[in-house]
Amino acid sequence: MEAERGSLAVKLFAAFVLFAAAYGGVVLPWRLDRPSSGAPLSLASALSAGVMLGAGLLHLLPDASASLPQDFPYANALFALGLLAPLALEQLAREEEPLSAAALSDERRGAPLLVLCALSFHSALEGLAQGAAPTLALSAELLLVLLLHKGLAAFALGCLFLNAGLSRRRAFALGAGFAAATPLGICAGLLLHATLEGSAWVASAVALAAGSFCYVALLEVLPAELSARRAPVKALLGMLALGFALMGLLALYV
Prior knowledge:
One of its GO terms (cellular component) is membrane. The protein is an all-alpha fold. It contains 8 helices and no strands.
């Protein structure tokens, strides 16, 4: 009972802290004269990708697999769905007719909104995993992982808003919506955990979130950092490996 109360406290704390981290990250570029987008931020992003990859493969997926029936690899199938569904949705959202000259002038302004929708979708899935986490240890691990990733993703989103010429008022309103996605996901996960505790639905949500974590790491964060070349490739790969190794060490002792 005490462990359950502790897990609930961590989840509620996570909802507040992750909202603050996400909103603060979006707002920060407006507080700086020239937002830093150089090597330190790039290396931190690579580290967060390794952490998310390790969390998905070494923590979430094994936990989900242990709680689902063993007559079929349900956890792996749901993991694949969590990995591929966001890819399909984002590609369909970006599919469009050849742009006219007028549309080309609006492309710079519209691109950050696509990124906002994608990040909000992932944030809701991440919050769902946090809220549905069955143990105190997993709740605490997810909080650490999401804190590292959320601040960096939010700062990058804020820089996109600033560079696209969005007004401060509109950018802050969109940032608040993005920041609310994870707490809303946590609330949904808490409801799922409370009403369907011990059922396969909770484990299914965790497996889906594991796929989403790996999607963000492998298809969103890493390609952007490796193509931008803001830091040496060896350093980026080293930070990726470090993040994954840290989650591996955590899996040994938790």
